[in-house]
User: What shape does this take?
Amino acid sequence: MPSDAPATSSRPILRDPHRIPVIATDSHLPAVDPQHLNAATLRERLAGAHHWPPSIPGDGARPEWFGERQPAAASVLVPLVMRPQGLQVLLTQRTDHLNDHAGQISFPGGRAELHDADAVATALREAEEEVGLRHESVEVIGRMPVYTTVTRFVVTPVVGLVRPDYTLQLDAFEVAEAFEVPLQFLLDPANHQRHEFEMAGVRRQFLSMPWRPEGEAGREYFIWGATAAMLRNLYHLLRG
Assistant: This one.
């Protein structure tokens, strides 16, 4: 997925976000009511939501900060797996050897191709190419407002419900792992950390949502940057 980390020679790359100080959490904000985390409510709230202004538009929406690189269209799939215990978000972790955004956690997705009919087609194609998630296993229920990364990708998040019997075949070059995180955890601002740093003379902030799976002592998935920002935008859509 196009990332929120700078990737030009004139902008240093934020390689270790874990080391950036946490300045606050958002525990003062209410969590999304678990009763609203269902297919019917999501369909209702996402109807026409791609026309709304995003809560977090992305730093790339401010070209005065990051140069004159031309915007490029991209899409990600926000896959919500329908489990008996509640909706789970399917995320990927990129392999460590990649030149760009190695090891980062993201939604499956990428740059739009000329043969893609629309943003939905891009998201479904990229998900199948990256993790082998077949479009027959996904019911697309809406699109979220675009998010613009600092590398000037204008990303459309496409939300889809995924059948629990889905199968995956990871692209081993790009994807190290695919895993699920409870949507309820990700949409609780008590789990949202704010970090602040300075890069190239500009003060910036980003969100993180570290997730530690039960029964896996010492394991942490550090969800941050563009992925965390798009999840925060989903939070605001569902809170209304």
